[in-house]
Design brief:
mainly alpha; 9 helices
């Protein structure tokens, strides 16, 4: 099976319109950044508040919080890497099958191109001109079959290592926010700082994502913040219950 880089090279690289900032596939990394950071903040805040509700000991909260955040970041990073790698492998297998069919059954594949562009409104000589133009160059033919028949885009081939690293770093950076106050402040004061910083960070994440979603910053911020507050309350209640037991 051809590698990811070889497939991209064979298909002629990424289309020119992706050079625009709005269309750039790098913008897709916002998904990994938000996913990792939101999960890190909510998980860490719930965990820290839960331990505080049970123990009220800054040293234990700090040690367990750091351990939990580190383990969570590694887990998120490797999970994102494996998920992205598996998706790329599936895409490559589908493209390899399509390339084989083009060599073994070219007329059938040409007819598929014909059906695709007939559905787009091309007919007669105009349709045959399009089919001949596409199938005259194997890389263009493969790319059209990949996009039109399989629904796969070149920009879907994201680097699994980049995806994993971005997710892990985003998780870690956010997960440590609720923990840091316990390194410098007494438990009661640290608790207030931890919750306050986390709520502001959650609101900022939700509001920040609206730069790409074009929704209201207030709506986006309150949505993520609400999820975080509910998760933190659940963690606190479980911690108090565990402490009582």
């Amino acid at each position: 099976m051809a590698s990811r880089s070889k497939i991209l090279e064979e298909l002629g690289g990424k289309p020119g319109y992706l050079d625009e900032a709005w269309h750039s596939p790098k913008g897709k990394l916002i998904r990994e950044v938000l996913y990792g950071a939101t999960d890190g903040l909510v998980t860490s805040l719930g965990f820290v508040i839960g331990v505080y509700g049970a123990l009220h000991d800054s040293r234990i909260i700090l040690i367990t919080g750091i351990a939990g955040a580190s383990a969570g970041a590694l887990s998120m990073g490797f999970s994102a890497y494996i998920s992205s790698k598996s998706q790329s492998e599936f895409f490559l297998a589908e493209i390899e099958r399509e390339r084989r069919e083009m060599k073994e059954m070219p007329e059938k594949e040409r007819d598929e191109i014909r059906k695709i562009y007939r559905g787009k409104g091309f007919h007669g000589e105009e349709l045959e001109m399009v089919v001949n133009r596409i199938t005259s160059k194997p890389s263009v033919w493969l790319r059209v079959m990949m996009e039109e028949e399989l629904g796969l885009l070149v920009e879907s081939f994201e680097n699994p290592w980049v995806i994993g690293a971005v997710t892990a770093c985003s998780y870690a950076a956010a997960a440590f926010l609720p923990i840091l106050p316990y390194a410098r402040v007494a438990p009661q004061g640290a608790f207030a700082w931890s919750v306050g910083i986390s709520i502001l960070a959650l609101f900022g994440l939700g509001a920040g994502k609206t730069r790409w979603t074009r929704l209201s910053p207030w709506r986006g911020g309150l949505e993520i913040m609400g999820i975080g507050v509910i998760s933190a309350l659940v963690g606190f209640l479980i911690g108090r219950l565990a402490g009582g037991l």
